[in-house]
Write a structure and sequence with these properties.
This protein has 217 residues and is an all-alpha fold. The chain is built from eleven helices and no strands. It is 84% helix and 0% strand.
């Protein structure tokens, strides 16, 4: 492979990521004009998504055999759980979201389809397919946050949703994504043209799901 897998994936998904960065929900967050009730809905749905995301990460860990890869995935699972419980949940509490609100919240159909797609491809296509699908979510959030921060730096500084952007452009988040990208590139070194094409299809489909999610909130 002349190009690294991550470079090919990025090139294939960037048009969809640029589309995501132009979604009204995202732009309204950056400008600080997003209705608070819509943000509450997003936070609850994102929490339900994260619970499934962690389960798929855990399944990926169970499938891995390489010691270094298992260590990476274990750290990633721990970090995702920590972020969910120490950042996401407290932020939901600040928005007045109760346990009852969460338990009565019905998961958006697109989320069920999205996590089902990732789970299916991990189980049927293997470890690299799962890593590729899961990475897209983490990577696109960083991409969106960086794009919006460049476009609307002054507005974000005054936005009530500033912390959302700060979290995804942070040094820690950037470093974690870079490590994930490096791990995937290493795992995919022997991937042939057909395998690479398949991984691009998975990555792009996950990006399409993300765009549908922004439209759902």
């Amino acid at each position: 492979m002349d190009m690294k897998l991550s470079e090919i994936l990025f090139k294939s998904a960037e048009p969809l990521w640029l589309e995501a960065a132009d979604k009204p929900f995202v732009v309204s967050m950056a400008k600080g004009t997003l209705d608070n009730e819509r943000f509450r809905t997003y936070m609850m749905q994102d929490y339900l998504y994260l619970l499934d995301y962690i389960k798929i990460l855990t399944k990926t860990f169970e499938m891995a055999e390489d010691t270094a890869l298992k260590a990476f995935l274990r750290d990633l699972i721990d970090a995702t759980k920590s972020e969910t419980m120490s950042v996401h949940v407290p932020n939901m509490r600040k928005l007045g979201i109760s346990d009852e609100d969460i338990s009565s919240c019905e998961k958006e159909e697109v989320i069920s389809e999205y996590v089902g797609f990732m789970r299916q491809h991990l189980e049927e296509k293997g470890l690299i397919a799962g890593l590729t699908a899961l990475l897209q979510c983490s990577w696109v959030y960083a991409y969106i946050a960086n794009i919006e921060t460049e476009r609307f730096s002054d507005a974000i500084a005054a936005s009530p949703y500033r912390s959302w952007f700060e979290a995804y452009i942070s040094e820690e988040y950037t470093r974690s994504n870079r490590k994930w990208i490096d791990v995937l590139d290493k795992e995919a070194e022997a991937a042939d043209h057909d395998k690479t094409k398949e991984l691009c299809r998975i990555f792009q489909k996950c990006a399409e799901f993300e765009n549908c999610l922004w439209d759902a909130f």
